[in-house]
Amino acid sequence: MAQDTELRRHKRGGIYFDDFVVGHLYEHPLTRTVTQMDNMLFSNMTLNPQPLHIDRHFCEQETEWGQPLMNSLFTLGLMIGIMVNDLTVGTTIANLGMTEVKFPHPLFEGDTVHVTTEVISKRDCAYNQDNKLVAECRRQVFMRMRPR
Questions:
Q1: Pick from 40, 38, 36: nearest CA to 50
Q2: pLDDT at 9 over 80
Q3: DSSP string across 7-42
Q4: Which pairs with CB-CB distance under 8 Å and at least 24 residues apart come from 17-22?
Q5: What does pLDDT average to over the chain?
Q6: Are 43 and 54 in contact, with CB atoms under 8 Å apart?
Q7: Contact residues for 58 (Cβ-Cβ < 8 A; gap 6+)
């Protein structure tokens, strides 16, 4: 593949469809440390009262995590937002859907996210500062069973 500097990019920076090469891995330079405020604002703006995101005491006392988890839709949005700057500003017509979304490891307040995009047929992934995969782009839910 030609180096990114040799690509003809959109004036806003996006790469055109023709220039994506299957197998190429983009490591995006933008990173973001996620905060309690991010979690609270996003959860409240989306009317999500899940205590897993907004109630530290609940998380410390009643979950195996011992701390709030970042809202997974915030994680997904952040992952996509980070990659937009490098790849799709000005070249996206519309999002047509997201499938195979997975969150194999929780993202916590204070974690720093970095993102890679592997061109398989076009797909994104996000990692925390320890290189643990925290998001991939079908919703699956891990549910607690009713107490016996």
A1: 40
A2: yes
A3: S---TTSPPPGGG--TT-EEEEEEEEE--HHHHHHH
A4: 17/91, 20/119, 20/122, 21/119, 22/119, 22/120, 22/121
A5: 83
A6: yes
A7: 51, 52
